Amino acid sequence: MIGIVEDISKRKEVEIALEKYSNQLEVLVAKRTRDLEQAQEELIAKEKLATLGQLAGSVGHELRNLLGVINNATYILEANLSPENQKAREYVRMISSQVQRSNKIISDLLNFAREPVADKSSLSVLELITLILSNYPSPENVSIETNISQDLPHVYVDQQHIEQIMTNLLTNAYQAMPKGGRLHISAAKKKDNILISVEDSGVGISTKDKQKLFTPLFTTKASGIGLGLAISKKLVEANGGKIEVQSKPGRGSTFTIILPIAGRENGQ
What we know:
It is a single chain. It is extended and about 100 Å long. By secondary structure, the protein is an alpha+beta fold. The longest helix has 79 residues, at 2-80. Helices cover 56% and strands 16% of the residues. It folds into two domains: 1-114, Helix Hairpins (Orthogonal Bundle), CATH 1.10.287; 121-260, Heat Shock Protein 90 (2-Layer Sandwich), CATH 3.30.565. The chain contains six helices and seven strands, in the order ααβαββαββααββ. The strands form two sheets. Strands 2-4-5-7-6 form a five-stranded mixed sheet, covered by helices on one side.
């Protein structure tokens, strides 16, 4: 009788151990499946990007030349239109606007296809941000506040790269506030870096979208091809920095670029 009880007890122990092992195996298989799916998605994305790079390099310049001809033609056409012909002028401006948009897409494709090389120099953060805001002012319904000390150490970066990054961030911020809002730009020193933050009061970004935000060709917008933030990330990293984002749906977003201080780029 005792032997039968011991057999039953051992059998239950084995069953419990088998069930535990089975559960662990299911979790492991699920994780491996997710890893394989992610690896496959990344591989497909890399193949797409490789094709995109080849396409951009081969036809980008030719398309830009054609757009240049169209742009010149619209300029001449508008110059020869009578002031009374407002309808035709409106159509010409529409064509010019689409030419500019097409040029922007081609520029993004070409910029993403090539590896950026940073021509770095020591730059004042305050002067740099002031220049960028003067070249790319906000819409009338968006107010801008800045908090940047003129005593901040200079950054060691490529000026054109930072202008492009900030323009991308400003564009996204303005578009996130279609009904207007507030944009706050600040800069602060942290250890050997300068942190420049662009905070908007816009619609915010979901957790799901935030994970893909810097993925090439990912976009939540009706227009655009999803390269702006991917290019910004490449440019920041080419300058020895990083880009981070914090956001909550309905509560706005904050993008922060972290850049090296001039004089510290070689560990000085």
